[in-house]
């Protein structure tokens, strides 16, 4: 659980490569013992931010403080951070034990203390008995456990995770997520995790920080960000990528949504927005009814164009007068069937439609 204070503070950070600016004024304070996931579209600057915290990249402006100490000009090895990479980055010519003890040896630990610590770490990452093995004889999951052990051996207050699970197969990946999270809770270090995988970020982190074009655009608890994305980009990024253009009119406390083809809905208690808007919804947040949807929902008539079964629920592509959408449903329906997409009001993310060149925001 997060504790009081600040483990990592980033103030006005600006980073660029050559003339190209990449991070544009990042401010972020991270509590000790918290697990933060940095998420965002490819190229938004997640890895650059992580590598700046690690000390591999020199910022153009701003400061980085770790445990209250300004480390902006300090080398990576003196920052109190350790990093775990996607590529494992293990020494292939060294045994598992020597890989894990490597950082301790660099720090001048006596041999007996290194051996004791390596044994502790092997037990921690469930690799006891593997100390003498060459890392080249290990599976991907075992290598990543060794990489985690090596990072944790030096007792870093802050662990930086650069997509460490993305090379692993799906099953090992799920196990490792839980193992890293459990260890982080038990030992209490602060973790900052870069990932492309939204679900991985949601299940591992206490806090999501979403970046877009080098800026933080949303920051909060995973369920809050997921339920209340503050822009169309964040909504789409977190899976609400079915989009409808509409016109919103306020009527008392209700919102009347007017769509093309004469489709209308009256919705209570949604954010106040007037005029042109975008409605985002997730495939798994709706039902397909054979009749008109009722109650506080938007009902859109359509026809099933294509179907597939990814497992658990059916996935349908539905053609409607206001666009083509993906929708999940528990029931098997035939291609060509007439349906109604019923989108409950709480599952509709309503944003003012941006004017050209102006970013959209969620209506307050
Ligand atoms: N060494 C470099 N030299 C020049 N440009 C770079 C360098 N590293 C990254 N960039 C550029 O900086 C931007 C941000 O890159 P970064 O790797 O931080 O993004 P990211 O969000 O981690 O992306 P991804 O999710 O694809 O890994 C990109 O436009 C990238 O092309």
From TrEMBL:
Cited PANTHER family: SPERMIDINE/PUTRESCINE IMPORT ATP-BINDING PROTEIN POTA, SPERMIDINE_PUTRESCINE IMPORT ATP-BINDING PROTEIN POTA
Q: Which SUPFAM superfamilies match?
A: MOP-like, P-loop containing nucleoside triphosphate hydrolases
Q: What is its main location?
A: membrane
Protein name (Swiss-Prot/TrEMBL): Fe3+/spermidine/putrescine ABC transporter ATP-binding protein
Keyword annotations of the record: ATP-binding, Nucleotide-binding, Transport
Family membership noted in the UniProt record: Belongs to the ABC transporter superfamily.
User: What is this entry's stated membrane topology?
Assistant: Peripheral membrane protein
Record InterPro entries: AAA+_ATPase, ABC_SmlMolc_Importer, ABC_transporter-like_ATP-bd, ABC_transporter-like_CS, Mo/tungstate-bd_C_term_dom, P-loop_NTPase, Transp-assoc_OB_typ2
* ABC transporter domain span: 8-238
MF GO annotations: ABC-type transporter activity; ATP binding; ATP hydrolysis activity
Q: Cellular component terms, GO, for this chain's entry?
A: ATP-binding cassette (ABC) transporter complex
State where the protein is found: Cell inner membrane
């Amino acid at each position: 659980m997060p504790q009081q204070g600040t483990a990592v503070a980033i103030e006005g950070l600006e980073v660029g490569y050559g003339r190209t600016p990449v991070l544009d004024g990042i401010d972020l304070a991270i509590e000790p013992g918290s697990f933060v996931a940095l998420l965002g579209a490819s190229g938004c600057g997640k890895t650059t931010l992580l590598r700046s915290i690690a000390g591999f990249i020199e910022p153009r402006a701003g400061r980085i403080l770790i445990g209250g100490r300004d480390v902006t000009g300090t080398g990576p090895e003196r920052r109190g951070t350790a990093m775990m990479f996607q590529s494992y980055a293990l020494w292939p010519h060294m045994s598992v034990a020597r890989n894990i003890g490597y950082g301790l040896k660099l720090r001048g630990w006596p041999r007996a203390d290194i051996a004791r610590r390596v044994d502790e770490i092997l037990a921690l990452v469930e690799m006891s008995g593997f100390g003498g093995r060459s890392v080249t004889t290990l599976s991907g999951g075992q290598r990543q456990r060794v990489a985690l052990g090596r990072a944790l051996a030096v007792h870093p207050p802050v662990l930086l995770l650069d997509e460490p699970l993305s090379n692993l197969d799906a099953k090992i990946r799920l196990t490792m997520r839980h193992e890293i999270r459990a260890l982080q809770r038990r030992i209490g270090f602060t973790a900052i995790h870069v990932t492309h995988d939204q679900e991985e970020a949601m299940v591992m982190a206490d806090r999501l920080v979403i970046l877009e074009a080098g800026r933080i655009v949303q920051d909060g608890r995973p369920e809050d960000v997921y339920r209340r994305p503050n822009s169309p980009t964040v909504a789409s990024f977190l899976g609400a990528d079915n989009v409808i253009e509409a016109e919103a009119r306020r009527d008392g406390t209700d919102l009347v949504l007017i769509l093309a083809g004469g489709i209308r809905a009256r919705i209570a208690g949604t954010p106040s927005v007037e005029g042109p808007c975008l409605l985002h919804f997730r495939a798994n947040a709706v039902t397909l009814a054979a009749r008109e949807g009722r109650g506080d929902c938007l009902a859109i008539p359509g026809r099933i164009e294509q179907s597939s079964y990814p497992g658990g629920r059916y996935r349908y592509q539905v053609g409607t007068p206001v666009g083509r959408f993906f929708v999940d449903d528990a029931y098997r329906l035939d291609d060509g069937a007439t349906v109604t997409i019923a989108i409950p009001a709480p599952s509709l993310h309503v944003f003012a439609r941006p004017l050209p060149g102006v970013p959209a925001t969620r209506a307050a």
